[in-house]
Structures are given as C-alpha cells and as structure tokens.
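User: Watch each token:
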Amino acid sequence: MTQTNRYNLDFEKPIAELERKIEELKRLTEKEGLDFTEEIKRLQSRSRELQEKIFSHLTPWQRVQLARHPNRPKSLTLAKLIFDDLLLLHGDRLYSDDQAIVGGLAKIEGEGIVFIGHQKGESVKENLFRNFGMAHPEGYRKASRLMSLGEKFKKPIISFIDTPGAYPGIEAEERGQAEAIAANLEKMSQLKVPILAIVIGEGGSGGALGIGVGDKILMLENAIYSVISPEGCAAILWKDQEKVEEAAEALHLTSQDLLKLGIIDEVIPEPRGGAHRNVEKTAANIKQAIIKHLRELRKLSLDELIERRWQKYRKIGSFKRE
C-alpha cells in the first residue's frame, strides 16, 4: 500500500509539488485524450533525482521529523502485514487495558510468536484514545504478562517500539510507572526465549526501554532512539527551543549513529522518501530482518542466549578507572 501523503514536511514539499503535477497530467491524459507521456517521464525523472538528493543527505533533525511523520505506519498496521493469525490480548489483570501498548499472539512463517508494541493513533481522535503512544504502568504490566506467556509456551517475543516516552502524568506515577518499567527491564534480561526489539518510529527514553531489552535491537532507517527528545535536550542545555537541530545532532539518535556506537545491531532500510511512502515495502523489509535474526537466535542454547544478552548490555558505553 503506497500511501498518498495527506501531510508533507517542509523538505518533502518540492517532491510533493512535482507529484501533484504528474497526477494532474495523468488525469488530463485520461480525461482529454491528450498525450503528455514525455512531460510525465521528465517530471518523474526529476522527482527521482530530487528524492535522491534530499533523502541521501538528511540531517538528524530531519530524521526526527520523519520518525514522527503523521503518516508513518504504526505498530498494528505493520503487524497485520508482517504476521499471520494475529490475535490481540488485552489487560494487565491488575488495573486496566492500556491502549498505548498492544500485543498478543501471532505467527511468522508458521512459527508462533508473541507480539508487543507501542501504538500511536492514526487520527487526532485515536491519538487521544491511544494517549499518543505514551503508556501508563498498566501498559508495561500488560507487556510483562505477554512476555510471561511467551516464556511459558516457549515463543519468541517481538516488540515494536514507537513512543515519545512513558506517560509522565501524576496518575502514572501514583500507580508505579518507574517500578513497572524497571520490572520489565529485569524480566526481559532473564526471559528464556529469543527477544527481538525493533524501533519503528520514536524510541523515547524509559518508555522505549520498557519493552526494549532484546537479544537483537533493530531500527528502521529513519527511526530515532534517545534518552531524551531534542526539544527536551534543548530546553535543559540551552533553555532555547531554537537549538533543537543542534540538540538532535548532539544526541546521536539516528539509526546510523547508534549502529556505529554499538547500541543497535542492524538498520532496516526504508523505501526512498520514508516508510510512509510505501508501507508494504517497509513491512516486507522488517519481516525479512525478523526471519533472519530468529533463525540465528534459534541456534543458541538457553544458557548461551541469556549469557549473550547479558554481555551485550554490559558492553554498551565505556568508563575509565582513575
């Protein structure tokens, strides 16, 4: 499903204008019987050249904008394209069913898996319903319940990360937001099944980590993963929102940066122009990566799996003894 943009970022607008002209010429060709073949080819060639020029040299801030693009495919959209027999499960059995985190049972290539993901809305109304993908403690406890289910039935766990962060409201704190995330970190570090965590959009702070500990961490090409948003960083360091571009660069939050730093294991390519331009191709690329990594992880014994997971996180970062 190649998506027609309902919304264009500033740096996408020249491409969108060319695409609009191409569509107009195609409509005239159909309606009036006029031959604009050569003009259409010329504009299509120009559009490809412009896409190559723009999207081959994106700044970190532009990638932040793409990661937040309103048309970017959400967890459930991708899950329905990637997995078979998706059955969503609900509730944390303690408080409520947090709509910012979705999950359940599914299959990929005939193998059963447990799927967990942050879910943003496709519209303003749904975003309010989903709390913009910002989970409450019950969301992380629902995820924990699904993880336990996966371990019990020996099914790999696949998580899709796409959140600005955990919900910071007072009611979330009252219900134990920090404890819920910390408990998930502990649980995921010890789960006796393979875990793949894939950042498909925004990977924001502890909200992302709450379902983000894995044997392999993958990221879509234009996704971001950071301890804080560029806006939050600019506010703290410079007290100036004009510094967001500088903050985005300083945070090293792009998939390319994080691969170099050893934080993630693979960058999954997106269609030229971003995941929102061809959702089916994006889903196919993610599916291919999932299948490849699950095959590799299946070869490990449980002891090897957990030891490698432990060592993976021990190696992140560096420190110096005086």
The domain at 64-314 is CATH 3.90.226.10 (2-enoyl-CoA Hydratase; Chain A, domain 1).
